[in-house]
Amino acid sequence: MEPKAIILVTADWDALKSYAKKICQTAATQLNVEYKELNEDWDFLTNYGEKDEFGGVEIPQAFIETADGKYVHVMTKVPLNDKGTPDLQKGVQLFINKSKEG
């Protein structure tokens, strides 16, 4: 896959926004792609996001926009380490790994 941008869908009220933003910005820098942030874009999440068992969507969610215009879901919520704290490196690695897929 050829990444074009990393997209973060979040909200001002999202307590984990700063962590998710740092993960996405770092991954965008490492992949040399654009970083985009969408605020409470429920339509985007409904169309491309991960849904729960009731069809609802959660914030934050992050995606890779590919060069051919597709959106690939990468992450819902911020990954945690064994101590239950945000693991930024693990989050960045999710993007690196996903970008290497077909």
List the helices and strands and how they pair.
Elements: E1 3-10, H1 17-31, E2 34-39, H2 42-48, E3 61-66, E4 71-76, H3 88-99
Parallel strand pairs: 1-2
Antiparallel strand pairs: 1-3, 3-4
Helix pairs in contact: 1-3
Task: Give a verbal description of the structure.
The chain is of the alpha+beta class and 102 residues long. It has a single domain (3-99), classed as Glutaredoxin, CATH 3.40.30. 33% of the residues lie in helices and 25% in strands. The protein has three helices and four strands. It has helices spanning 17-31, 42-48, 88-99; strands at 3-10, 34-39, 61-66, 71-76. The protein has a four-stranded mixed beta sheet with strand order 2-1-3-4, with helices on both faces. α1 (17-31) crosses α3. The longest helix is centred in the first third of the chain and has 15 residues, at 17-31. The protein starts with a strand and ends with a helix. 25% of the residues are buried.
Q: Which terms summarize this structure?
A:
alpha+beta; 102 residues; Glutaredoxin
Short description:
It contains three helices and four strands; from the N terminus they run βαβαββα. It is of the alpha+beta class and 102 residues long. The protein has one domain (3-99): Glutaredoxin, CATH 3.40.30.
User: Per CATH, what is the topology?
Assistant: Glutaredoxin
Q: In what range is the share of β-strand residues?
A: 25-35%
How many alpha or pi helices? 3
Broad CATH class: Alpha Beta
Gross CATH architecture:
3-Layer(aba) Sandwich
Count of domains = 1
Low-confidence stretches: none
**How much helicity do the residues have?**
25-40%
Largest sheet: 4 strands, mixed
User: What value does the average pLDDT take?
Assistant: 96
Structural class: alpha+beta
What is the molecular shape?
globular
Distance between the termini: 5 Å
The Cα radius of gyration reads 13 Å
Write out the strand line-up for the largest beta sheet, numbering strands in chain order. Answer: 2-1-3-4
